[in-house]
Prior knowledge:
Layout: H1 13-25, E1 48-52, E2 55-58, E3 63-66, H2 81-92, H3 103-114, E4 120-124, H4 127-142, E5 146-150, H5 160-163, H6 174-177, E6 180-183, H7 188-197, E7 202-207, H8 219-229, E8 233-237, H9 250-253, E9 260-263, E10 274-278, H10 280-283, H11 307-322, H12 325-346, E11 353-358, E12 361-366, H13 375-387, E13 390-391, E14 395-396, H14 404-427
Parallel strand pairs: 3-13, 5-6, 5-7, 7-8, 8-9
Antiparallel strand pairs: 1-2, 2-3, 4-10, 9-10, 11-12, 12-14
Helix pairs in contact: 2-11, 3-11, 7-8, 12-14, 13-14
Pyridoxal-5'-phosphate is lined by residues 32, 126-128, 131, 155-157, 208, 237, 239-240, 264.
Amino acid sequence: xxxxxxxxxxxxxxxxxxxxxxxxxxxxxxxxxxxxxxxxxxxxxxxxxxxxxxxxxxxxxxxxxxxxxxxxxxxxxxxxxxxxxxxxxxxxxxxxxxxxxxxxxxxxxxxxxxxxxxxxxxxxxxxxxxxxxxxxxxxxxxxxxxxxxxxxxxxxxxxxxxxxxxxxxxxxxxxxxxxxxxxxxxxxxxxxxxxxxxxxxxxxxxxxxxxxxxxxxxxxxxxxxxxxxxxxxxxxxxxxxxxxxxxxxxxxxxxxxxxxxxxxxxxxxxxxxxxxxxxxxxxxxxxxxxxxxxxxxxxxxxxxxxxxxxxxxxxxxxxxxxxxxxxxxxxxxxxxxxxxxxxxxxxxxxxxxxxxxxxxxxxxxxxxxxxxxxxxxxxxxxxxxxxxxxxxxxxxxxxxxxxxxxxxxxxxxxxxxxxxxxxxxxxxxxxxxxxxxxxxxxxxxx
Length: 446
Ligand SMILES: Cc1ncc(COP(=O)(O)O)c(C=O)c1O
């Protein structure tokens, strides 16, 4: 273990003031529940003032190493200069016009060149918009209503078709809920069972291609063929995997040919740019050329073609094309995983922590004295990492700006936090955790 001096962050005065006011102004206190106060310990920053590279600063001036990087969206680094430069240039030319901007065609050609499986693309500002668009097109194309998704996967959209299938379904009519069904994420048998249970009813399957577990290399060839055999379409949601598991995403790694892919998060280095790519025959349903045929009102939003988000995505793609970003990010993930194994083995804690996921998205399960996953101990571990200058929620999403020195810093904080964790295992988390435990985002009651 390298000898690194860690900070001791204890001043959250301005954060506490912010926390006391924000819930009177914004329901949930944030614009995604994942960033909310119930996702962080009491001793934590309430809001960020600015960030650069892989570091961010809070209202009290405390500095943190960022590990989830804007919910996976910042793939190159915060305020990454080549992306900022492209955005600045675009800002000078205007951001929204009365007709499309010429950059839309440039971007369409550029992005589609990365996804040879697909012929057409539609842009949006949020991931939920493009996953819902893929579902809408699938329903129109197949004339069916039911949407299938893996039971274990957490999130595809805040729209009714998805949220109605979670425990957070308040406000969604039962009539809508019945149209979303689930299968076991890695089981072709269960997929087949589902198709047989809902014969000629399933319009599409939507799935993140890689979620915490490793699938057989031919899984998608078989799964997509099965869906097609049953008349359903396949939507591969690359929101998190895109520009992370591979470039452009898992579609390449699995040599898969889904009918659609949905993209967002890291593809514009944190700027708001998302996309739906798909096969022409189906995407054309959202076009205006099918004379006399019904028109699908696909994605139609005032800000969908906002020019600087597109410029940010183009600059991000350029960086990926000119550098081996994927290799760098995976190496950072591997370095962290090796370091964590070393710490846990040395401290005899391997049964209390579990590393999950992949080198491009490294997850951590924190357990209690009974060796069961536990939110109290998880919150305590987050609290200790934050106190040592690492804004950590149990996930490392490596970016092009993370260096091994940053990970050494993170590992030093991890090691010291383990020391507190050991003491908590002996005498109870209650003696160390300040405030409440974190809560699941998808919960029925507050
Ligand atoms: C797999 C997946 N799909 C879709 C979405 C929705 O994206 P957005 O938050 O941009 O609407 C998310 C967001 O977390 C996601 O993780």
